[in-house]
Design goal:
Elements: E1 5-12, E2 20-27, E3 32-36, H1 43-51, E4 56-63, E5 66-67, H2 73-79, E6 81-84, H3 96-101, H4 109-118, H5 135-147, E7 153-157, H6 165-178, E8 184-188, H7 192-197, E9 201-206, E10 209-215, H8 216-220, H9 223-230
Parallel strand pairs: 3-8, 3-9, 6-7, 7-8
Antiparallel strand pairs: 1-2, 1-4, 4-5, 9-10
Helix pairs in contact: 5-6
């Protein structure tokens, strides 16, 4: 199987001191992969280094075998990455329709219609200002903005952050649907139990290093994983 994303020995950070240290990671086609870990483990730093938003000091990033490590963020996105940042991920003063239009200068009405099929809740909101949408609707709009470019891999940073509890499962349900669009998913998520429930594989970071990796269901049943990173709550 050709890997969509291959990370080899990635290291980097905000200053001369590396925050992430030699991370190896892969994502296969139509796979959901979760990155979990405690606060300060380096999860968001890793995503930013992957996207070229932070400098890397070592390692490589490959998309379908092509090394994109030397490319800037926009060029990486042009190659097939999509990114949904945490919380601030839509233009709140623009309408839903305008948000979809500005996602890509080449976007067509048929592409917008395709996104409305995937996210039907947005159909009746096209003229509505994005800032007036519910949290769940805004997140769906953020997904649609990312997917309209037909990416090979969508990267999600805390997709359920700041959402009301009743909306969280609906967002996880949407993420599961992304597999049907022939797109792979890599996400950082603090709600590790729920994220692993819908994931194929997962990587656990601690102090900028991968400390556990494997099939998601196996990690959910790993006593070390539960004790250190999931707490003692009953798995649901």
């Amino acid at each position: 199987m050709n890997e969509v994303l291959t990370i080899d020995g990635l290291a980097g950070g905000y200053t001369d001191v590396d925050i992430i240290h030699g991370i190896d990671l892969s994502v296969n086609p139509q796979e959901i992969v979760t990155i979990a870990g405690t606060n300060g483990a380096g999860k968001s730093t890793f995503l930013k280094a992957l996207l070229g938003l932070l400098p890397r000091t070592k390692g490589s990033v490959k998309l379908y075998g092509q090394d994109i490590s030397h490319l800037g963020t926009e060029a990486r996105i042009e190659q097939g990455l999509a990114y949904v940042p945490q919380v601030t991920n839509v233009f709140r003063t623009l309408s839903v329709y305008e948000n979809l239009l500005v996602a890509d200068k080449r976007v067509t009405r048929s592409q917008i219609d395709e996104m409305l099929q995937v996210f039907p809740a947005l159909k009746t909101r096209l003229s509505q200002q994005a800032g007036t949408l519910s949290g769940g609707e805004r997140q769906q709009l953020a997904f649609a903005r990312a997917l309209i470019r037909s990416p090979k891999l969508i990267i999600l940073d805390e997709p359920t952050a700041a959402l009301a509890p009743k909306l969280i499962q609906s967002i996880f349900d949407v993420i599961v649907q992304l597999k049907q669009l022939n797109v792979a998913v890599l996400m950082v998520e603090q709600r590790a139990r729920q994220a692993l429930d819908i994931s194929d594989r997962a990587y656990i970071l601690d102090q900028g290093k991968v400390v556990l990796a494997g099939a998601a269901h196996e990690l959910l049943n790993n006593p070390e994983m539960v004790e250190l990173y999931l707490g003692t709550q009953t798995h649901t």
